[in-house]
């Protein structure tokens, strides 16, 4: 989360300097600078994700050195999941905190002809971003470990695309639907990257059913018979 905050700080500084060095009366230019700032923010986030990967690799080597069996107690997949989830949570907090502050009032959403679905749509977009960052973390770490640069490129491209789609708001159907399609596809990709398969899902479900059956049988045996 700290690495994400640092990337946001740097992106904000770049955007702030760009705005003050440009013509602030030119609305079209300011909108272009806003898009530029979003793109810079995405690239810095992915750069800091890579920096965090390198830091964790160094820490992983240190943990493996001091462990008794010569292996790190934390796997790369666990670190990737935790890293992505942390990026997602802090990103979601910053995405929704200003919206929640505005929801206090004054005024009513849609009173001036704006969409009344602003808050619910923002909630769904925030949820998608949290999930996407988690999935991107799993894919990104695996790509760095296996040196699959095309996977890294796809992660960065999908992140840029997702960020760019938000500029279609308030046409929420044009942004929300594609973003959730990207989320589902990326989640499936992350699931396969983490070693998941349809066979594993069936095996997990069958084990759960067996456990439930054992619990029910054990509970039945514990019930005393009535006369």
TrEMBL record:
Signal peptide: 1-22
GO CC terms in record: gamma-secretase complex
Biological processes annotated in GO: Notch signaling pathway; protein processing
Cell compartments where the protein resides: Membrane
TM segment ranges: 31-48, 79-97, 117-141, 148-168, 174-192
Keywords: Membrane, Notch signaling pathway, Signal, Transmembrane, Transmembrane helix
Membrane topology: Multi-pass membrane protein
Known role: Potential subunit of the gamma-secretase complex, an endoprotease complex that catalyzes the intramembrane cleavage of integral proteins such as Notch receptors.
Similarity field: Belongs to the APH-1 family.
Subunit structure, interactors included: Component of the gamma-secretase complex.
Protein name per its UniProtKB record: Gamma-secretase subunit APH-1
The species this protein was found in: Zapornia atra
């Amino acid at each position: 989360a700290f690495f994400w905050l640092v990337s946001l700080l740097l992106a904000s500084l770049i955007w702030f300097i760009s705005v003050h060095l440009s013509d602030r009366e030119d609305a079209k230019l300011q909108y272009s600078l806003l898009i530029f700032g979003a793109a810079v923010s995405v690239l810095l986030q992915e750069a800091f994700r890579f920096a965090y990967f390198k830091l964790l690799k160094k820490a992983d080597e240190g943990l493996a050195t001091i462990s008794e069996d010569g292996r790190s107690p934390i796997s790369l997949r666990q670190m990737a999941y935790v890293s992505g989830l942390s990026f997602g949570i802090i990103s979601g907090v910053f995405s929704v905190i200003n919206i929640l502050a505005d929801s206090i009032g004054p005024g009513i959403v849609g009173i001036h002809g704006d969409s009344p679905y602003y808050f619910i749509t923002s909630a769904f977009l925030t949820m998608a971003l949290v999930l996407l960052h988690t999935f991107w973390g799993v894919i990104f770490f695996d790509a760095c470990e296996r040196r699959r640069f095309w996977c890294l490129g796809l992660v960065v491209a999908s992140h840029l695309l997702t960020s760019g789609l938000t500029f279609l708001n308030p046409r929420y159907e044009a942004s929300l639907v594609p973003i959730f399609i990207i989320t589902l596809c990326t989640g499936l990709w992350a699931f396969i990257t983490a070693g998941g398969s349809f066979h594993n899902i069936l095996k997990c479900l069958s084990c759960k059913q067996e456990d439930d059956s054992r619990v029910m049988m054990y509970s039945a045996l514990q019930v005393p018979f009535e006369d």
